[in-house]
């Protein structure tokens, strides 16, 4: 039981971290141009 | 009027149009959005951004490859020549007007709701697995409380999409799929909370949240499909005029938005511009392309005093016209009004999912109620009765049913997208699978709507080469057709001093001889009244070098498409505003079942109304302004990418490729998807037939509910993936290439 007291909050925390990261990346426009992003990585200058 | 007058208003118009399409952003910069349909690769991104960024005044230019749009931030009084620069770099572009301030808010809401539901569902599911595998009561109790803490905000945040829609339906006295979903989810949560409070064995938090998650997947896919089609259609070139060049009292000109044009104003119409409002010609002689308005393919020659209709295209010399009607009273507006009347009929169509819901919710709710009553009679234990009744609701909750229809339609839209057909919404797919007759417009739909050289073999290659290089200096449709011929050999002479004589043709010098390409009477320089060859000629110092015959050509696979439609048992009728003999010949050429010629827009609509009254369901395919009411009034409608804006907006499908085979392919895909939808719905019924008796008898534990719901969803999705591509269809190597024909048209504008 006592191990759960540590593990469950850790698992939840990681989950929230993932959710937060996704929402942030969406908000900052990282999914706006999926095709363009795939091509831009090949450019040297930017 | 001379040719030079046509040039400065064109440039001025360009700048004014850019200003009308721009918006001041919060940093004090002008923001302009351009649709650039030709971009398709990483190199394009660089080139476009470099070309735009190098222009004076441009602060920042960024291209979005997914939407094929470039956003430019610029400053200064003089608008940078964005479109001209892109055109020169090989990327014809059009301005995007109605740029929303924010990105599609609905999609953002759906994806966020989906992310929250996914997070919550996976965590609750993990907790549930440990409960199912035999956690001791104390641990189970803790896990239930954690689950409740996760489920409540999820229900509030992700569930409100369904609750809002269900509430809206109920308030109007209707019911839709969201009503049983909402009731099921809320009751499942309430029961689970009660169980947790009273230290019960079973809680259904996992069922409530996974249900939301699965349904949101279907909802989001459905929305993305429609949004994708909408942006693609919006990216096509705009055919309606945005503004008009008004000649003031003192002779100066100014470019005003179309809504500000009043009757009595003098307007200057340059070559290649569309007539913005109805009016009469004051000064100048020109040719008009009226195919969008009347369906006639031959250009119309007009002189002073002629009536001009909004939407026709000025092919020849610049002209001056007097507006006789405001834009809101012009031909175009009349078409829009006819369309609105026609659309009333279509709104009555109810989607298959809504019809299923109408049948489904009373049955489910009645079953749950009877279960409750039954158990009350049998053992009188109200707690047991209520929880059994609620499990009935949970197990029947239309997880499979909610996904059954959208997942198939998303697959079908994807297949059609690969074939260059955009689907506006799912109900169009359902309607098109029901059609039993096809009506085709002629000009611009069956044909390409632009002239093509028909006697190439009679022309000397050298003459063709000279003609094509002369034609490159003109924007007349005939000139473009010549340029498109791509002569096999290089130009044998060096041409200088090239000038266009509006209404006549193009002229150039080469070592003391004059070449003229254009109207025979002008090019051969003969006295009026002499017998002249018809059509376009190339002459050297008045001596005939070659004669060019043009005609509107059928789309490449028109005949095969009509044959395929007739093989499906659908009669194909050609209905056109053009003259009888032309329509009859075109109808015979493609082997259509019948034809109707010389019809006015309202008569086209009446023809479809009559078919509807006779109980026939008609697919209308058309492109012109004159087709727009018919497109809106037909049971279902398609338009090519080259269609007038209103037509494109009225049509359920827009096809981007040149060929007409899009029509039989669309019907084939829709029929196949209709079959899969029925299979899926049949499966959902079968699933309920097995699951409901178990639930009524009280054998459904949370574990059974979770397994049953997930398994049924997977079966439905897997079934949808079986949707085949239509036989004989050639999907593009990549969906990106689909935009190419559309952009050719944009370039032609």
Kindly list the characteristics that best describe this protein:
heterodimer; A: 46 residues; mainly alpha; 2 helices; 72% helix; B: 749 residues; alpha+beta; Alpha-Beta Plaits; Calcium-transporting ATPase, cytoplasmic transduction domain A; 17% strand; transmembrane (chain A); membrane (chain A); Cyt_oxidase_maturation_cbb3 (chain A)
Mean pLDDT of chain B: 80
Output the structural class of chain A: mainly alpha
Total separate domains of chain A: 1
Report strand order across the widest sheet of chain B.
Answer: 15-28-27-26-16-24-25
* Biggest β-sheet strands, sense, barrel of chain B: 7 strands, mixed
Query: What is the number of E strands of chain B?
Result: 28
Low-confidence stretches of chain A: none
Measured by residues with Cβ under 8 Å of the partner chain's Cβ, the largest interface is: A-B, 21 and 24 residues
Walk me through what this model shows.
The complex is a heterodimer of chains A (46) and B (749). Chain A is 72% helix and 0% strand. Chain A is an all-alpha fold and 46 residues long. Chain A has one domain. Chain B has 749 residues and is α+β, with helices and mostly antiparallel strands. Chain B has five domains: 1-101, Alpha-Beta Plaits (2-Layer Sandwich); 105-232 and 352-410 and 670-720, no CATH class; 241-331, Calcium-transporting ATPase, cytoplasmic transduction domain A (Distorted Sandwich); 421-449 and 554-656, HAD superfamily/HAD-like (Rossmann fold); 455-548, Calcium-transporting ATPase, cytoplasmic domain N. Chain B starts with a helix and ends with a helix. Residues 1-7 and 732-749 of chain B have low confidence and may be disordered. Chains A and B meet through helix 1 and helix 2 of A and helix 2, helix 4 and helix 5 of B.
């Amino acid at each position: 039981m006592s191990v759960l007291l540590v593990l469950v909050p850790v698992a939840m925390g990681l989950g929230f971290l993932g959710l937060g990261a996704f929402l942030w990346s969406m908000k900052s426009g990282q999914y706006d141009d999926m095709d363009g992003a795939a091509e831009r990585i090949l450019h040297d200058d930017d | 009027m001379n040719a030079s007058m046509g040039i400065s208003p064109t440039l001025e118009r360009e700048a004014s149009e850019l200003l009308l399409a721009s918006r001041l952003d919060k940093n004090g910069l002008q923001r302009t959005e351009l649709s650039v349909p030709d971009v398709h690769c990483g190199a394009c991104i660089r080139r476009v951004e470099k070309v735009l960024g190098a222009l004076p005044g441009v602060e920042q230019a960024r291209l979005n490859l997914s939407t094929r749009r470039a956003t430019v931030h610029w400053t200064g009084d003089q608008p940078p020549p964005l479109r001209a620069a892109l055109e020169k770099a090989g990327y014809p572009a059009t301005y995007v007007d109605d740029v929303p301030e924010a990105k599609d808010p609905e999609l953002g809401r759906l994806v966020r709701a989906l992310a929250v539901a996914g997070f919550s569902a996976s965590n609750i599911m993990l907790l549930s697995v440990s409960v199912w595998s035999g956690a001791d009561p104390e641990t189970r109790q803790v896990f239930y409380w954690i689950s409740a803490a996760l489920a409540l905000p999820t229900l509030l945040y992700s569930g409100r999409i369904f609750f809002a829609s269900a509430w809206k339906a109920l308030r109007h006295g209707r019911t839709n799929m969201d009503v049983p979903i909402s009731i099921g989810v809320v009751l499942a949560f309430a029961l689970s909370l009660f169980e947790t409070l009273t230290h019960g064995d079973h809680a259904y938090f996992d069922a409530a949240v996974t249900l939301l998650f699965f349904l949101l997947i279907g909802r989001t896919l459905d929305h993305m499909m429609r949004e994708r089609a909408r942006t693609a259609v919006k990216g096509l070139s705009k055919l309606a005029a945005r503004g008009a060049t008004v000649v003031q009292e003192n002779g100066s000109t100014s470019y005003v938005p179309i809504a500000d044009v009043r009757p009595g104003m003098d307007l200057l119409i340059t070559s290649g511009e569309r007539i913005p409002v109805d009016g009469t010609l004051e000064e100048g002689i020109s040719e008009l392309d009226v195919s969008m308005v009347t369906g006639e393919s031959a250009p119309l020659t007009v002189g002073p005093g002629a009536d001009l209709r909004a939407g026709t295209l000025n092919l020849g010399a610049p002209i001056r016209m007097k507006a006789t009607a405001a834009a809101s009273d012009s031909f175009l507006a009349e078409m829009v009004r006819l369309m609105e009347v026609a659309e009333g009929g279509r709104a009555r169509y109810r989607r298959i999912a809504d019809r299923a819901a109408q049948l489904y919710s009373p049955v489910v709710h009645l079953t749950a109620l009877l279960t409750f009553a039954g158990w009350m009679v049998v053992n009188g234990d109200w707690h047991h009765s209520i929880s059994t009744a609620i499990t009935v609701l949970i197990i029947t909750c239309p997880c499979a049913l909610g996904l059954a229809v959208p997942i198939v339609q998303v697959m079908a839209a994807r297949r059609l997208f690969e074939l260059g057909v955009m689907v506006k919404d799912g109900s169009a797919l359902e309607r098109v699978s029901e059609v039993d007759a096809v009506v085709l417009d002629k000009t611009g739909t069956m044909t390409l709507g632009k002239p093509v050289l028909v006697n190439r073999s009679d022309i000397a290659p050298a003459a063709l080469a000279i003609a094509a290089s002369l034609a490159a200096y003109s924007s007349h449709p005939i000139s473009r057709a010549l340029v498109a011929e791509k002569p096999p050999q290089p130009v044998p002479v060096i041409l200088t001093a090239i000038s266009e004589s509006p209404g006549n043709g193009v002229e150039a010098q080469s070592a003391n001889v004059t070449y003229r390409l254009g109207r025979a009477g002008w090019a051969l320089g003969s006295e009026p009244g002499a017998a002249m060859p018809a059509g376009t000629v190339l002459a050297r110092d008045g001596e005939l070098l070659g004669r060019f015959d043009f005609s509107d050509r059928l789309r490449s696979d028109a005949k095969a498409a009509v044959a395929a439609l007739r093989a499906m048992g659908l009669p194909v009728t050609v209905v056109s505003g053009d003259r009888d003999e032309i329509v009859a010949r075109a109808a015979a050429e493609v082997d259509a079942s019948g034809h109707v010629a010389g019809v006015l827009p309202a008569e086209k609509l009446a023809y479809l109304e009559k078919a509807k009254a006779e109980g026939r369901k008609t697919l209308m395919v058309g492109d012109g302004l004159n087709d727009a009411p018919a497109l809106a009034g037909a049971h279902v409608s398609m338009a090519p990418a080259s269609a007038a804006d209103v037509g494109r907006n009225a049509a359920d499908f827009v096809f981007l490729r040149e060929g007409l085979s899009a029509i039989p392919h669309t019907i084939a895909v829709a029929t196949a998807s209709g079959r899969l939808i029925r299979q899926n719905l049949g499966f959902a019924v079968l699933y309920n037939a097995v699951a409901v008796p178990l639930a009524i008898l009280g054998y459904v534990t949370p574990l059974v509910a979770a397994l049953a719901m997930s398994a049924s969803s997977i079966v439905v999705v897997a079934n949808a993936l079986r949707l085949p591509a239509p036989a004989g269809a050639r999907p593009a190597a990549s969906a990106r290439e689909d935009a190419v024909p559309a952009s050719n048209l944009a370039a032609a504008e």
